[in-house]
Amino acid sequence: MKHYDAVVAGGGIIGASIAFELAAEGLSVAVFDAQNPGREASWASAGMISPAPESSEMASLLPIGMASVRLYPDFIRRVEELSGKSVGYRKDGALDLVLNGTGQNEIDEILALHQAAGLRAEALSGPEARELEPALTGELRAAIHRPDEASLDNRLLTEATLEAAHRKGVEVFRGNGAKALWTDGAKCKGLHLQNGRVEARWTVIAAGCFSARIEGVTPYAPVTPAKGQMMALRCDSVNLKKDLWSGHMYLVPRNDGRIIAGSTVEYEGFDRNVTVAGMKKILSGAISLVPALESARIEETWAGLRPDSPDHLPILGPTDLDGLLIATGHFRSGILLTPVTARLIREWVTTHRVSEDWSPFAPMRFLQARQGRGA
Q1: Alpha-carbon gap, residue 293 to 191, rounded angstroms
Q2: Is the peptide bond before 263 cis (omega within 30 degrees of 0)?
């Protein structure tokens, strides 16, 4: 039986980035995935790098979200240089669109929330926003411009990060996912796999919404799948530069000319079916923002499963089992939080200290809540 310094359950962007960072420190690392790595939530995302809070309830994400934004340029540089692959990074900013029917007080509240978070943001009138993006609807009342926001092609990022990790010596095992934690008293010794078992000083659970299916993990990471339906459009008459937001609706331009449109949030178990209702919602939302998309070609449709936690916050950090670390539950922020998640896990493994406060996301919060209820 081979022994590693660290084993990672899950080969999506979170698992791949953690493996890459650990291997860069000289650790021996292996990644185990039940299928082809990177084909779950990492593959299905829109690739936005936006720390802007969707609501005041998500304010605790701001510090690590902004830390991750600061880490991204160097993370991308290292991944691209080592892998030889581009990740499609673009930093053209974003517009948070306000359609007719929204009152000035709501606009002021949105703007105040951004500015209180230390995010550069400015209010624009509808005509001012259309100067930046001429294809926007005439029904646009106002917009909030966030000039520092960025996006990338999440599929390219995951592929490049896996390749960079491989070139750092990470071993990736496809079709051999984790079935259960391998424990001995208060110590986690590694993983029981679909085929055999593996021993390591550190075991990292980063299997997205499948993490809770690994025996022994649920008390620390009771994640569930949140389905998101999406589509890729192409329209010769529309040349968007900025990411566009309106509520949960978004349009994200890619370097290859596609426009990624999404998304739904559905709790339907592990169902990945694309539905007429889901596509109708996305298409009607896209056309309401950019009317010319009515003539767009639909190039691809898909649905992904985000890992959601009971409080919709990530699950990051150590547990009461020596050697067991959790890195899942990123919900709609997986791409945003990739560099900071990898860095925090690497820091804990190598120094037992972290540079950002991750206590709000501690895995033990769920175990302690269960014990408090007498479960």
Answers
A1: 48
A2: yes
Residue pair 231/282 in contact (Cβ under 8 Å)? The answer is: yes
Q: What is the pLDDT of residue 321?
A: 98
**Three-class SS state of 314:** coil
Joined together, the tokens standing for residue 14 give: 């979170």
Do 240 and 293 share a domain, yes or no? yes
Does residue 282 belong to any structural domain of this protein? yes
pLDDT digits (tens, 9 = 90+) for 166-206: 999 999 999 999 999 999 999 999 999 999 999 999 999 99
The pLDDT tens digits of the residues spanning 296-341 come to 999 999 999 999 999 999 999 999 999 999 999 999 999 999 999 9
- Asked if 160 and 272 sit in the same domain, the reply is no
pLDDT for res 118:
84
Taking the complete model, does pTM exceed 0.90, yes or no?
yes
Supply the pLDDT for residue 53: 74
Q: Cα separation of 129 and 136, whole Å?
A: 8
What gap in Å lies between CA 190 and CA 28, rounded to an integer?
14
User: What is the SS3 string spanning 345-375?
Assistant: HHHHHHHCCCCCCCHHHCCHHHHHHHHHCCC
Q: Are residues 78 and 158 in the same domain?
A: yes
The number of beta carbons lying within 10 Å of the beta carbon of residue 215 is: 12
Residue 328 vs residues 5, 126, 146, 156, 171: alpha-carbon distances, Å: 20, 39, 28, 21, 21
40/298 Cα distance (integer angstroms): 21
For residues 149-162, give the mean pLDDT.
98
- Pull the structure tokens for residue 152: 């990338």
> What is the tens place of the pLDDT at every residue in 27-64?
999 999 999 999 999 999 999 999 987 666 677 899 99
| CA–CA separation, 117 and 257 (whole Å) | 32
Domain count, the chain: 2
Domain that holds residue 175: 3-83+154-223+310-372
- Tokens for 371, please give them: 């014990």
- The answer to whether residues 133 and 189 belong to one domain is no
CATH number, domain with residue 236: 3.30.9.10
